[in-house]
Design goal:
The protein is an alpha+beta fold and about 425 residues long. Helix content is about 40%, strand content about 15%. The protein has 13 helices and 11 strands.
């Protein structure tokens, strides 16, 4: 391929240029690590070229395709099965040979060509319309944007979906290739969502509009704007059901609608304020049951599991089920008032007044507390007026622990006190006697 004479026929010329560029990319992926770092003038041995020289050749082959775009956009990709593997291709996404080249070329520029002259401002790319003409001298990020925008503007039959998708890909270059762009990436993402929300109603095909809604939903969900993401997913599913963006939105919607309950507990003094907190989503109320336990029962659990002190804090499903079979000491319900639908919220639980003692506190997403059916969490909690505090530090004269010259090899017998514990009254802070 290196020394081949390119034919005058535009189509075959394009095929060979693309093949040579793609072969070069694969060579760099496989053997780039072993290439020399210093260039050798006049060498014709391809294995003696540097990675930079290989990238220059690959870039030149892609650049040579630019002037052929008017012809290539009229060549249907479905007729290129001899040169391109189209067995599993989505031809609605890449209906022409030029669309296929645009996808490969822009991917090379953003993933493999490097930053060129350095990061470019993201704000120039994240806009309804990209305002820059194509030039062979553009840095990779700008060149990719220009190629994508041009592909979106090229007139050709049955390319409405592809045109919309190229415009979306250009808009999202800073999000998907952040290392090539400078500026406030959070603002760029927010600006992109605004444009995508507009495009979900204006792009030239239903599939492209669904893709815009899906991409806006992904960014919104990543920024915890779950209600907005849900609305966008519903719109994508309406626009193009059973499509790729529609199916992906079904998954996002299912995840956001799924109920979730996390539960933490800590030792507190009576009457139990601050005993527990929950983090929940899509659960209107959390139901609690409190069971009395004792050190002997907990010691038995510890012996069974021998899994460290965490076994005294968390319980297995079987252990929770055993406690649920008993009559609880107390039960209550805490309503959750979510400020925004589908968002997580954390709330401190205020239990009824509790006496000192060890308890198992079970939390459920419904009132049934059914093992295997309800969302269940449980923990051992200690309501106590005794707190144990600890500090670390060597007790004694510091000079006793500084080695003088010649003493390094001598054995030391000192065993200083390093950890100190204090028992205090949790309500008053005063030390306990004895």
């Amino acid at each position: 391929l290196d020394g081949i004479k390119l034919p005058k026929d535009g189509l075959w010329r394009a095929r060979l240029l693309l093949l040579r560029a793609e072969t070069g990319r694969e060579f760099l992926k496989q053997y780039g690590y072993s290439l020399p770092t210093d260039s050798q003038e006049g060498t014709k041995d391809l294995t003696k070229l540097t990675a930079a020289q290989w990238r220059s050749r690959i870039g030149a082959d892609y650049d040579a395709l630019w002037d052929l775009r008017g012809m290539l956009v009229k060549r249907r990709l479905k007729d290129e099965g001899y040169c391109v593997d189209i067995a599993k291709a989505s031809l609605e996404y890449t209906p022409t040979l030029w669309d296929f080249i645009v996808g490969r070329w822009s991917g090379y520029l953003t993933e493999e060509a490097g930053a060129g002259s350095g990061p470019v401002p993201a704000g120039k790319i994240v806009a309804d319309k990209y305002k820059a003409d194509f030039s062979f001298l553009l840095p990779p990020a700008h060149k990719a944007a220009a190629i994508l925008e041009n592909a979106a503007d090229l007139p050709a039959k049955d390319r409405e979906t592809a045109a919309g998708l190229w415009r979306i890909k250009r808009l999202l270059l800073p999000a998907h290739s952040s290392g090539l762009f400078s500026g406030d990436h959070a603002k760029a993402a927010s600006d992109a969502v605004e444009v995508l929300i507009k495009w979900k109603d204006t792009l030239p095909s239903a599939l492209a509009r669904a893709q815009a809604a899906y991409e806006a939903a992904v960014i919104s969900a990543g920024n915890s704007l779950n209600k907005q993401a849900m609305d966008l997913c519903v719109r994508a599913m309406e626009l193009a059901p059973r499509s790729r963006p529609g199916s992906e939105c079904e998954k996002i919607k299912a995840r956001m609608e799924e109920p979730s309950l996390q539960f933490t507990a800590k030792p507190v003094p009576p009457p139990g304020k601050g005993l527990a907190s929950v983090t929940a989503r899509n659960i209107p109320a959390v139901h609690f049951r409190l069971y009395k336990t004792a050190p002997a029962e907990l010691e038995l659990l510890f012996r069974k599991k021998q899994a460290g002190f965490n076994s005294l804090r968390s319980l297995t499903r079987e252990e929770v089920t055993e406690f649920l079979s008993r009559k609880p000491e107390l039960s209550w319900t805490t309503e959750l008032d979510y400020p925004v639908p589908y968002q997580f919220m954390t709330k401190e639980i205020l239990p009824p007044p509790l006496k000192k003692g060890l308890y198992v506190l079970a939390a459920s997403g419904d009132a049934d507390f059914q093992a295997g059916g309800s969302i269940l969490k449980a923990a051992v909690v200690n309501v106590t007026d005794i707190f144990l505090l600890g500090t670390a530090g060597i007790k004694g004269d510091p000079e006793e622990y500084i080695l003088a010259p010649g003493e390094a090899a001598l054995p030391r017998q000192a065993q200083p006190e390093m950890f100190h514990f204090y028992a205090v009254n949790a309500l008053s802070g005063l030390p306990l006697g004895g």
